[in-house]
Design a protein that fits this description.
With 155 residues, the chain is an alpha+beta fold. The protein has six helices and four strands. The chain folds into two domains: 49 residues; 101 residues, Tetrahydropterin Synthase, Chain A, CATH 3.30.479.
Length: 155
């Protein structure tokens, strides 16, 4: 019985030490630490603006192989991506639902060129037209820029 009261007293002392350490650490953290950038009173707003600027890269279209319009067609290998705001759930869902239309737009447009024409046309012109076609099918948002991470012309 005496042994149990000693154990209880030791446990109470340990709990008090842990409680004081927890309270002391909290007070120290509040008083002596500086607020990291973007975490002040307007930290939520700053975080939202940073996410919109950074965005996320949509790569769901994947790599596409498109035959050229030549009598003996060559092959264009293309990987298109773009930035979007992943926090806009409705727009993100629309992008996922439009992948087939994006792929068809790429096939129809790029496939209308011969290899010689593709070699003469700048990537910027191709990107601008594809961007226009993508935005024409989108209802809940707009894309700003397209990127080609692969653009190969194979004869």
């Amino acid at each position: 019985m005496k042994a149990l009261t000693i154990v209880y007293r030791v446990l109470i002392v340990v709990l008090m030490v842990l409680g004081l350490a927890l309270i002391g650490g909290t007070v120290y953290g509040l008083v002596f630490s500086s607020t990291p950038p973007g975490h002040g009173r307007d930290g939520v707003l700053q975080g939202q603006q940073q996410r919109q600027q950074r965005g996320q890269t949509f790569t769901g279209i994947g790599q596409i192989r498109v035959p050229s319009a030549d009598p003996q067609p060559g092959m264009v290998i293309l990987f298109v991506s773009f930035r979007y705001d992943p926090d806009d759930k409705a727009f993100s869902e629309e992008l996922a639902l439009r992948i087939r239309e994006f792929r068809d737009s790429i096939r129809n447009y790029i496939g209308s060129f011969s290899i010689a024409e593709l070699e003469m046309v700048s990537e910027e012109i191709l990107k601008a037209e594809l961007l226009r076609r993508f935005n024409a099918v989108l209802r809940l948002g707009r894309l700003e820029t397209l990127y080609f991470s692969d653009f190969l012309i194979v004869r």
